[in-house]
Known about the structure:
With 369 residues, chain A is mainly alpha-helical. Helices cover 69% and strands 0% of the residues of chain A. Chain A has one domain (45-368): ABC transporter involved in vitamin B12 uptake, BtuC (Orthogonal Bundle).
Amino acid sequence: xxxxxxxxxxxxxxxxxxxxxxxxxxxxxxxxxxxxxxxxxxxxxxxxxxxxxxxxxxxxxxxxxxxxxxxxxxxxxxxxxxxxxxxxxxxxxxxxxxxxxxxxxxxxxxxxxxxxxxxxxxxxxxxxxxxxxxxxxxxxxxxxxxxxxxxxxxxxxxxxxxxxxxxxxxxxxxxxxxxxxxxxxxxxxxxxxxxxxxxxxxxxxxxxxxxxxxxxxxxxxxxxxxxxxxxxxxxxxxxxxxxxxxxxxxxxxxxxxxxxxxxxxxxxxxxxxxxxxxxxxxxxxxxxxxxxxxxxxxxxxxxxxxxxxxxxxxxxxxxxxxxxxxxxxxxxxxxxxxxxxxxxxxxxxxxxxxxxxxxxxxxxxxxxx
Amino acid sequence: xxxxxxxxxxxxxxxxxxxxxxxxxxxxxxxxxxxxxxxxxxxxxxxxxxxxxxxxxxxxxxxxxxxxxxxxxxxxxxxxxxxxxxxxxxxxxxxxxxxxxxxxxxxxxxxxxxxxxxxxxxxxxxxxxxxxxxxxxxxxxxxxxxxxxxxxxxxxxxxxxxxxxxxxxxxxxxxxxxxxxxxxxxxxxxxxxxxxxxxxxxxxxxxxxxxxxxxxxxxxxxxxxxxxxxxxxxxxxxxxxxxxxxxxxxxxxxxxxxxxxxx
Lengths: 369, 263
């Protein structure tokens, strides 16, 4: 990376205006100044739009990017797409919501992972560290297999309730155990084990083969069969949580040296923690109830994004969100096309790509820790 | 209210009491660091130095008593307001995050920045000044994880200075350092234009660099004054339970302590 300005004690006056690049001092996470951030964001957004447009065209029915554009335009009220109702339906009702939900899930999980890792000071933390995904599984299984709610309660609703119950249990447990960050992580692990066991128990004792298959697919994460309602709901939750997390970007930086150091820098640690834990748990619960527990995105993407932007959250969070979105759009495209007509659970593909990527990231950063 | 005339300046603790796990950690402690002075906080392990520093920083609330900043109760001030006035340096800062020296020093600007805002010119000026004062300007791009213990403490002090505090609280900042870095660090601290309270173990270093010394034992302040007034053979025998010879051989006739083997 650039070492040219390393000895520059004082940067050029022109480079120091509000909002422009901080002085570049050479290697280290600060090497990517705001100068680089604008192209990074614009590039990321363009890449995401292009990814969505292209990913929608991929599949058994042959569709072109202009087709996608005209269908989207038609549904937004600009003229007529001129495509047959079937092709229009494939684009607008099948592939579009699925691809968009992939983007939303990728962005949301990656952001949750970043926040958890910083807040809990644990590089292994991910959105599921609070037991939210396993609670969601139990909730879903209870609805699907045991028939709780008598069909009036959907799988998603059951998952959502299960996720929030699990999160409440983790909060209660960690508070009882002393409330330090390691207690939060341990409580999450305990809840995860408990709810996984409950899920297995229900599946083993009550489910038939068909139900087991459905539950398993959902446990591994799947975006098949999602519709616009999931997209709208998850996007709304993502938007709210993203705003909350971005508002806390500066505060998250303060946690680098621990809670006491954060408090000494003027952070209200207890309030910050509860706000961010609740926001990420809510977002994770919404995503998991729509698409199942898609693993590894929340663990790996934050590390990859950090390697790209450094650890300042003001830049890290948007970049992580964009990277997660693009990543999951393509992984889901792979998952639904590689073994066509059979579909692989997207969580399986994220793990198969994520593990080597994770090792690579850890290998590249090995000297620093 | 009680001290309309003299409560104006700086940090002051009165009748501070703190219990933890049924044990009395601080018992009626009062301390008033003179503005601009370097105050050494001495005492054996477990005498309450760290707890007192945490209470002075507002990180811990006293069970009884009051800490005031310019006459206002610390508890009534917002955390950010306090962080703009009082900076804290711990004995050992640990992070897993990959940060450069510049990143760490910039953390000191957090209490001065608003949510959503990018660091402004005043922030960058404060950071540059903190780096200059600690002699770290040339190391700004270096990774935290490649620094030695002494350099890390120096970076933490730079971070504290970037907060532009008027009070600086340091909890055994020289603990993990070799003697050269201990001397350098304390010389730097003593030279800073802020009121500093430094918990220390080494009596000779305290005598050399501190303007005032407060000695604690079992949660109480047992002595306070200039190094010459405080560091005596009687006090060392009383507080630490060891024999020592104290001579005025330090710089400017400050006390110099030589410990005697225990019988």
